[in-house]
Known about the structure:
5 strands
Amino acid sequence: MVIRARALRLAAATLAAAGTATLGLAAAPAQAAGGDPLDYVALGDSFSAGSGVLPLDPTAPLLCARSTANYPHIVASRTGAQLTDVTCGGAQTKDFAGAQYPGVAPQLDAVDADTDLVTLTIGGNDNNTFIGAIVACGSAGVLSGGKGSPCKDANGDKFTKAIDTSTYPALKNALRAVKAKAPNARIGVLGYPWIVPAEADRACFAKMPIATGDIPYLRDLQAHLNKTVQRATSETGATFVDMAAASQGHDACKPRGTRWVEPVLFGTNFVPVHPNALGESRMADQAISVLKLG
């Protein structure tokens, strides 16, 4: 067995040297300290699950709408990591420790002391932040004919207060629980890519029926959520994978082939206001870069 192990290490070294000579043709597999492929567990909500992107993962509960083209599958494919994917659309922080649906195990059950890598997006569904804001602002936008800021006028700081008082402590508790179960793992927490543009004059009412004055309101709300996720990540010793700069100019109002997130209307995903296949691929790029998995 010792001879075989030495032979394997020699072969690996030879292949690595050969790979150096052909740099750029293929990425080196991500490896744990012992040289084995990384034991990789993907947790999180629909932005991690790739909900709305085909093909669906036949091993996943149907309600999770998990895709085999989500960013965890892409990260695993590009790096050679051994993936256990328990992401699920609609997941909240509480679903790390409890069953999201009957028969669906808590996501933390997939994590243990042998886990080398964990990635996740989480927090957007707590307090129904994303769906609540989109529905409230979409409804208000339609009723106002796209004029003014009816959603901001009606809701004010309701959503940001809920993030501060409820989502933030829940995020810290969830990330601490991940760290406790996988003390030696790299934990990458991805931010959410931009949904609406930065400028109100770049709005697209036909596809995203949000009043012009509520575009900056929703943008500020998402920025606040991402900053809160970043804060909780930093305070629990995990690594934040910032998607803000990377996804600038790729919001749901951009044309197909440029946008990373699909709009409410006339999009390509069967789940709107979620990353498309391009968006999931770019989230994988950012995770690989920030977590140094290449």
